[in-house]
Design a protein that fits this description.
Layout lengths: L2 H5 L5 H16 L4 H7 L13 H29 L9 H13 L2 H12 L3 H25 L3 H9 L4 H31 L12 H9 L3 H32 L5
InterPro entries: ABC_transp_perm/SBD, MetI-like, MetI-like_sf
GO cellular component, one term: plasma membrane
Membrane topology: Multi-pass membrane protein
């Protein structure tokens, strides 16, 4: 994002409109059953009723939040470690492991985890954590490497220890790039969490999976619209966070 673009105030309307539409659907979608009866007259039960969309959304958001906390903590720690002198020789190993973690289909990770962890939320959390790690590790490495040598030398000249330089100078300056990776990871996981319903987790994928299995396109449409708006809403929130963060950072010399 350019400096000129960041300096311009962001319009609040996209976030307000998407947020309002999302809340209306989550709370009131099941009140629109007559609309779906008219839209899909061939279906006897065109409205998903096994759980409310508020329950599905809260459970879905909980899975994404917990897995994202794990991913952010582990990703920043790993990315920081391989940019320090003691960890540079592990960079290749870390690249390989994180790339493999994202290359594996989430459904394959679930199939491996279910015999060990059982059905429900746990295998879903493992799959989301593995799948979301690569963007955070890569953005942490890129962010820390973007800090200029002049800034690091100035921090050393002020008498900061290596840990103090990392915490007070390098990580704050790298924060916008790290946030980009976190944003990508969270948005990916909002979509990926839907497959958790195949192993018994309660997510917005439940109507999608049941709709696909039962040839009920109305269920698929209801789940897809809500999860799509959820991803767009979170992405818009991250966009505003990114603008605020970049406006507060001093230019690097």
């Amino acid at each position: 994002m350019s400096i000129a673009a960041v300096s311009r105030p962001a319009s609040p309307w996209p976030l307000l409109l998407v947020g309002t539409a999302f809340l209306v659907l989550v709370i009131g979608l099941q009140q629109a059953e007559p609309v779906f009866h008219w839209w899909f007259p061939e279906l006897d039960r065109p409205m998903y009723t096994r759980a409310t969309f508020l329950e599905l959304t809260l459970s879905h958001a909980g899975l994404v939040a917990v897995s994202s906390l794990v991913v952010v903590g582990a990703g920043i720690a790993i990315g920081t470690f391989v940019t320090r002198p003691a960890g540079q020789e592990f960079r290749g190993v870390v690249d390989t492991v994180t790339a493999v973690g994202q290359t594996l289909p989430p459904s394959a990770v679930l199939a491996i985890c279910v015999p060990i962890a059982g059905y429900g939320a746990v295998p879903t959390l493992i799959a989301l954590s593995l799948y979301g790690l690569l963007p955070v590790v890569d953005s942490t490495i890129a962010g820390l490497r973007s800090v200029s040598d002049g800034v690091k030398d100035s921090a050393d000249g002020l008498g900061l220890t290596p840990l103090g330089r990392l915490l007070q100078v390098e990580l704050p300056l790298a924060a916008p790039i790290i946030l980009t990776g976190v944003r990508t990871s969270v948005v990916i996981n909002i979509g990926t969490a839907t497959i958790g319903s195949t192993v018994g987790a309660l997510t917005l994928g439940s109507p999608i999976i049941e709709g696909l299995a039962g040839s009920n396109p109305a269920y698929v449409l209801q789940g897809a619209i809500v999860v799509g708006l959820f991803a767009i809403l979170v992405d818009l929130v991250f966009e505003r966070l990114d603008r605020r963060l970049q406006r507060r950072l001093p230019p690097q010399g």
